[in-house]
Give the backbone structure.
Amino acid sequence: MNTASDLVKITSEKLLSENGMSVDYVESMVNKLNSSGVDFGDIFFMCSVSESWRLSEQKIKSGSFGIDQGFGVRGVLGEKTALAHSDEINNHSLHQAIRAARTLSNKGGTSDIRLNLSPSYRIYNTGDYDPINSIGREQKVQMLSDMDRFARSLDPRVREVKVGLSSSNESSILFTTEGVTAAEITPQVSLNCSVIVEENGVSESGHSASGKIYDLSFFFQEVPVLPADYVRGVSSVSSVDMEPRYLAIARDAVRQALLNLRAVPIKAGTMPVVLASGWPAVLIHEAIGHGLEADSCRKGQSIFHDKMGEEVASKLCTIVDDGTVHDGTGTFNVDSEGVPSKRNVLFENGVLKSFMYDKLNARLMGKESTGNGRRADYYCKPIPRMTNTYLLPGDDSPEDIIRSLDDGIYAIDFSGGQVDTVAGKFTFTSTEAYRVKNGEIKYPVKDATLIGNAIGVMKNISMIGNNLEFDKGTGSCGKQGQSIRVGLGQPTLRIDSVTVGGTR
């Protein structure tokens, strides 16, 4: 298992030595940057190796492999940021980038920084896996073809199957004007399947995906076979039959498509809604999480910017953002500014306790960074971003929460939504939801859209389950043109009153 020092050694050899550079030269450039008088700055090297395969119409339609590498030099003075970057890693390019970043300030500063090349921060991602080479090309192609054939064999109404496989390995090393050296190696894999079914001229679709910070052997692990009428959070799994995860993904996509084929349009209205555990936390991520990122709050562009210490949710609600979650999609060792991952309590018993800070906004707001300064690539500047954001579990069983509904909706899966962080308003459309009457699930409903205000909905949460679950490892989030991996999670919960938009 790699230590922090091991990761620094591995990444410095890959990103510096193999490009004819030395740590000593980088240290001299860090001092040159700092001597310009910036408040703080850093040099960030990154290399991303990625591969993807796509199948549709029963054929492999594309396969790609790429290597993207480079570095970025950042200097910060007050509210101003200078960023220079290059996709050529060598001494000359770095020297030129340092010259460009130094134009931000000429007030002078110290030049006696010594980099700590033996950091001791705690390791959550060891970087021990090789996702791209963990199985051969023929086995990857065979897996996608098997998923296509398997999905079609499950039901004659299956008309189209699309499968996508992605794997990547990102290596980065950071050197700061505070003497911090930090490194990260992140192997990632993801697999998705989309299915279209047709009956009597009516078509519907289903989608399923899974991923992990791991290698491709993850998709060959055996998992229980789920029945065709399986409803997550309600159905028990008594089968002893097992199948590899990649076939389970195809099975789930077919199940959802067939479910939508018999789903009934829902009448719009205000009603209680139960959200399932796991992925429905995308509502918390979007409607709450983005509004707690410090850049929005500092600029007054969030409904939460002036509500610190106020009750903004039900007393049952404690929400955390935690970059240290075991196997979390958004877990890392240090953020993109060299701050170790942390567990930050955002809401505690309904009271707003903290925003999520990067170094820049923390400094301007008189706070400390919470380890949320993240960048998507070497040419990006760090901004406040979520890691793994989730609602802590309560005491109720999922079964009791569903039984509490006299007439309402049980929503299990969602597609994308729209959020206005300034006003706190949101809309989210379900891709799998059910009508519940007298505490029993009756039938699937189509395109149920939740419409509401973040604070109003959070205050209407009356029951929280004891079954905290996280996403399936494929979560990503876009902001200011930067897409990063994030995790999210929640237990089953009940919202007493939500506006539900329908199609009739």
